[in-house]
């Protein structure tokens, strides 16, 4: 049915305007069924394994905050909350950054549509509450990363350390801004989760993989251990400060 609609709209030459309308007016307001953007079951298992690995290595009692760059409606945020709950890590605050306007203008050249994945803080909050997430531990920060990811945000939200980080903002520029913001918060060990790893490489488009390679060059004292992925194009790493 979806394919039929897509093909018909394409034939009429109105598929792109339809997408713009959908991302701007329909999905943000929760009209229609919301399709999760990650495979929840696999994501849950992969994050749980990764955090268990982190706990084997981490000697500090405090894991700091969970940072998520790209929240959209909140499926990954909700899954991470429930993994933390199962592991009794109830002290971890969950901080999510998103434009809450979907993908930025110009994302087309990297394979995404402007406005895609648009949610609103209200719709996301409702979704998280419906999924029994304790909102007292969640902070959602609305805005483009270029306007929000500064020292001020760390101070305002009391972010002094990050050990679990999800970078799900798809495109190179946003991923690089997110990594620049969070790397100084990594102490000895951290889990880093990427949802869109290297699948634009064949088309000659730089993406999350290149953003991560570049940040590791800036912080050469970290080593990376790949962990179980939840999708072929996802990557989960344990990163650790090399012993001097
Ligand atoms: C694929 S979605 C995130 C999916 C989410 N993790 C989930 O589980 O449903 C990508 C998100 O990144 C956000 N995003 C991308 N680039 C951004 C930027 N430069 N500033 C703020 N948000 C951005 C978009 O608004 C979008 O909601």
From TrEMBL:
Top-rank taxon, per record:
Bacteria
Q: Which is one Pfam family of this protein?
A: TylF
Question: Which sequence ranges form a coiled-coil region, renumbered to this chain?
Answer: none
Output the Gene3D superfamilies linked to this UniProt entry: Vaccinia Virus protein VP39
Question: InterPro entries per the record?
Answer: SAM-dependent_MTases_sf (IPR029063), TylF_MeTrfase (IPR008884)
Supply the PANTHER family for this chain. Answer: MACROCIN O-METHYLTRANSFERASE (PTHR40036:SF1)
Q: What is this protein called in UniProt?
A: Methyltransferase
Q: Which organism is it from?
A: Algoriphagus iocasae
């Amino acid at each position: 049915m979806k394919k039929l609609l897509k093909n018909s709209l394409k034939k009429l030459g109105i598929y792109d305007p339809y997408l713009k309308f959908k991302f701007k007016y329909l999905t943000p307001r929760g009209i229609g069924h919301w399709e999760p953007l990650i495979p929840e079951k696999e994501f849950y298992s992969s994050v749980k394994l990764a955090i268990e690995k982190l706990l084997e290595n981490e000697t500090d009692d405090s894991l700091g905050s969970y940072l998520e760059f790209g929240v959209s409606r909140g499926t990954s945020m909700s899954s991470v909350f429930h993994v933390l709950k199962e592991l009794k890590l109830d002290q971890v605050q969950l901080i999510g950054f998103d434009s809450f306007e979907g993908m930025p203008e110009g994302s087309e050249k990297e394979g995404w549509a402007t406005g895609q994945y648009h949610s609103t803080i209200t719709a996301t909050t409702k979704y998280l509450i419906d999924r029994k997430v304790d909102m007292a531990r969640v902070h959602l920060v609305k805005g483009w990363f270029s306007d929000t990811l500064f020292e001020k945000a760390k101070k305002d939200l009391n972010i002094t350390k990050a050990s679990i980080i999800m970078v799900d903002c798809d495109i190179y520029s946003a991923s690089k801004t997110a990594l620049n913001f969070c790397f100084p918060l990594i102490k000895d060990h951290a889990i880093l989760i990427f949802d869109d790893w290297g699948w634009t490489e064949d088309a000659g488009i730089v993406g999350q993989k290149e953003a991560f390679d570049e940040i590791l060059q800036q912080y050469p004292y970290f080593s990376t251990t790949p962990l179980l992925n939840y999708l072929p194009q996802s990557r989960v790493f344990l990163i650790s400060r090399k012993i001097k």
